[in-house]
Design goal:
By secondary structure, the protein is mostly beta strands. The protein has one helix and 16 strands.
Length: about 240
C-alpha cells in the first residue's frame, strides 16, 4: 500500500478552525454531524476580552462570554478525531545501549555502518459503541527527506519511549505501507493505514529504511509529532 498525499474520507471533510484560541466547528443546515457529512461552517465566537470603561470613578472591567466546547466533543460528533502520538523514539545500531526518546527528530537510516529505526505509538479512544473505523491516516512532518523509501510496519513486542534501545527493541512486524521519497522538507506525508486500525486500543508502528541516507521526521518533543486521523461510521 503506498502513501497518500491528501486525505479524503469519502464525503466527510473535517474542518477545525482556531479563532482567538477557541477551537470550533459547525455543520451545514441540511446535513447531520456524522462521519458522512462535512464540518463546513464555523459558528460565531466572541473571545474573552477585558474592557476598561472611562469615567471619573475607579475603572471597572467586563468580560465577554467564552465558548468552552472542547475539540474532542466537536470533532467526535462528526465521526473523526486527530490523535497525537503518545510515545515515539528511534534506535541506532551504532549506539546499541542508548535511548533516544528525548530527541526532537525521528531518524531512519541504512547507510553502513549506520542503521536507525523509528517506533511510534498511538492510543485510539472515543469511538462510540456500534461504530467502526472507516479510515485511518498516519501523518508525519518531514524534517529531512532522502532518496530512499521508508517502510512502515507493525511492531511485534513491547517497547517504551524512554527505555528502548537497539539492543532491547522489539522485532519488526508485518509491512503496512511504503513512504516514497521526494517530499520537500516541511511537507506532511500521509499514509492510509486503515487495514491495521480496528477500533479503540493501542496501535504501534515501526518505520525502517530500505537503503541510503538519513530520513528525519518531527517527533512529539518538537511539538509537531506524528498524528493519526481516524474516522468512523456505522458498524460494518
Amino acid at each position: 500500500m503506498s502513501r497518500r498525499r491528501m486525505w479524503n474520507g469519502g464525503s466527510a471533510v473535517v474542518a477545525v478552525l482556531l479563532l482567538g484560541g477557541i477551537i470550533v466547528a459547525g455543520c451545514s443546515d441540511d446535513e447531520p454531524a456524522t462521519a458522512a457529512s462535512a464540518i463546513t461552517t464555523a459558528s460565531t465566537i466572541t473571545t474573552a476580552s477585558t474592557i476598561t470603561t472611562a469615567s471619573t470613578a475607579a475603572p471597572t472591567t467586563t468580560t465577554a462570554p467564552v465558548v468552552t466546547e472542547s475539540i474532542t466533543a466537536v470533532v467526535a460528533a462528526a465521526g473523526a478525531f486527530l490523535f497525537t502520538a503518545t510515545e515515539d523514539t528511534y534506535v541506532n545500531i551504532e549506539k546499541p545501549m542508548e535511548a533516544h526518546g528525548d530527541s526532537d527528530t525521528l531518524k531512519i537510516e541504512d547507510d553502513a555502518p549506520e542503521r536507525q529505526h523509528v517506533l511510534v505509538r498511538f492510543q485510539v479512544t472515543g469511538i462510540p459503541e456500534g461504530k467502526s473505523v472507516t479510515q485511518a491516516v498516519l501523518r508525519l512532518l518531514v524534517v529531512k527527506d532522502a532518496d530512499t523509501p521508508v517502510t512502515v510496519h507493525l511492531v511485534d513486542g513491547p517497547w517504551s519511549q524512554l527505555a528502548t534501545t537497539w539492543e532491547t527493541a522489539p522485532p519488526i512486524g508485518a509491512e503496512v505501507a511504503v513512504i516514497e521519497p521526494g517530499d520537500p522538507d516541511g511537507a506532511i506525508v500521509e499514509l492510509d493505514v486503515t487495514d491495521v486500525v480496528n477500533g479503540v486500543g493501542q496501535v504501534d508502528f515501526y518505520l525502517t529504511p530500505t537503503a541510503g541516507d538519513t530520513v528525519k521526521y518531527a517527533s512529539i518533543e518538537s511539538g509537531d509529532g506524528p498524528t493519526l486521523l481516524v474516522t468512523w461510521g456505522d458498524g460494518g
